[in-house]
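Changelog entry

Holo records now carry the ligand SMILES as an explicit input line rather than a separate metadata file. Below, a converted record for pyridoxal-5'-phosphate, shown in the new format.
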Amino acid sequence: MMPLRRALVDSDAISANVAHLRTLAPAVHTMVVVKADGYGHGAVRAARAALAGGATWLGVADIAEALELRAGGITAPVLAWLHAPAEDFRAACAANITIGVSRIEQLEALAAIGGATVHLKVDTGLGRNGVGAQERDALFARAAQLHHARVITLEGVMSHVAGTSRASDMAQGDDFLVAMAELREHGVEPELRHLTASAASILHESLRGTMVRFGIAAYGIAPSPELTDIGVRPAMRLETEIALTKRLRAGDGVSYDHTWQAEADTTVALVPLGYADGVPRQSSGNGWVEITGVRYPVVGRVAMDQIVVNVGDDDIRVGDRVALWGDPADGTPSAAEWAAWSDTIGYDVVTGLGRRVARLEWQR
Ligand SMILES: *Cc1c(COP(=O)(O)O)cnc(C)c1O
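Structure line, unchanged by the conversion:
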């Protein structure tokens, strides 16, 4: 029997998306980012699918995520770029994880181990991770020194764009060129130069460098509202079964605070997925689900374990399959639509699945 709450993951869709994105935004290398458990799709599963689609690199935020890939048998290059204040890099180095470095202290920790492969992460204007403008020169000088002494291998330089506007993205690209010129003055020219994630990789050919980094688009979700038509298909379907149906009279209320009341006699169906499973509570009053190819509205508040849908006089029964998000080609809402109903982004929707939701391969 299928688990009651399940996120079906279509590995072939991830592979096909990656293959398609490689033609849409070609670069020497294509990294697929599988942080946050592969954006909720399962990190090892997503990594395998991405590599099958032609990815040559995998990216994660932290080292625990990188080591999970190695434990899952993934031998491809993996880059991790966000570390604990006093991170111990020994296990990562032993597992051949490439380290993104934003602080000189990280560099010294790696120097003490020896043999690490490093990408320097430069903040070119996002104002987040990556070495700041004031600390950049010292980091570059020390990294170059360690590289020349063969203590580390300085393989890459990276940044991340903010996507605020075309002009600001281009300004970041210009600063990235300045950073590379500074490294050249120190006698280093890293082979891998990368700063664009899904949106900027597609939008800005001039910023692609020698590697593009795809996260959300690989999972078939638009990276921004202006990029809804990029030819990828959703790789996740969140589904369950109707647990109960009941007839309501006009005026009957549903769920906490009775924010919805039946206008006429109707049938409602109970869906055993709630905010603990990743259904955004913010969507209360706005969501839609698909049952047997037809969309029905979610009514009343999203609760921890359940939501209620109004099916009118349709013949919907206990045990009928119900999907919250998946592929619109099946009549199912997309994760992006759920995001719009919840005042958030598709990234937030797919990464928000709770522990009760089983991940299974999606056999279409
Ligand atoms: C998360 C992340 C990505 C992927 O971003 P998407 O918008 O999902 O494509 C790429 N690079 C870095 C540094 C990231 O943190």
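Spot-checked after migration. The mean pLDDT is 97. The chain has two domains: 11-219, 236-361.
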